[in-house]
């Protein structure tokens, strides 16, 4: 049964993760994907999310997708109960998802019950495409031939909704992609979007 926990800033909503947990975090193996944050020198959201996961007690393994082979991804994913995909640059993240074969490895595991936790870029990656995020992210950092995401959810997750620095961009994204036939789900920094089998809903802290 598919379990997704998608957020803008995981740290802000982490206490709501319990609705998806089958047992206490200390009994769960979590693969932490830091890749999206690689290009930033200052990344408080990244350190905040990682620290929060540690404090929650997860058995956490760090695994950067950069320069990894599919065989290495398959080995890292063996026996995991959850995967956490950090925030950062969504386009840079997708570039290494494609090069490493991560999508082909993780998608079947999620269908079988491995929990997917996304923060910002990690949430956008869960969608069928990341192209919609171009007004919020710099896509010039890589040269992608495809913007196809993980297809874990059919709607488009729009993180950081309401932040002043993106003012004016949210409505443009929602209008443009709604016209293309997509359902756009906005997430403030204090909300999480949850998929629990057939149940889909937004939760507030």
Ends apart, CA distance between termini: 25 Å
Supply the CATH architecture. 3-Layer(aba) Sandwich
CATH superfamily: Class I glutamine amidotransferase (GATase) domain
Helix content: 25-40%
- Overall structural class, as computed from helix and strand content, comes to alpha/beta
Strand content: 15-25%
The total count of strands amounts to: 9
Oligomer: single chain
Q: Report the radius of gyration as a whole number of Å.
A: 16 Å
Strand order, sheet with most strands? 3-2-4-5-1-8-9
Question: What is the total number of structural domains?
Answer: 1
The level 1 CATH classification is: Alpha Beta
Quick rundown:
The protein contains 7 helices and 9 strands, in the order E-H-E-H-E-H-E-H-H-E-H-E-H-E-E-E. The chain is of the alpha/beta class and 205 residues long.
Descriptive notes:
- There is one protein chain.
- With 205 residues, this protein is an alpha/beta fold.
- It has one domain (3-204): Class I glutamine amidotransferase (GATase) domain (Rossmann fold, 3-Layer(aba) Sandwich).
- The protein is 30% helix and 20% strand.
- The protein is built from 7 helices and 9 strands; from the N terminus they run E-H-E-H-E-H-E-H-H-E-H-E-H-E-E-E.
- The strands form 2 sheets. It has a 7-stranded mixed β-sheet.
- Strand 2, helix 2 and strand 3 (59-62) form a beta-alpha-beta unit.
- The longest helix has 13 residues, at 44-56.
- It is globular and about 45 Å long.
- The two termini are 25 Å apart.
- 39% of the residues are buried.
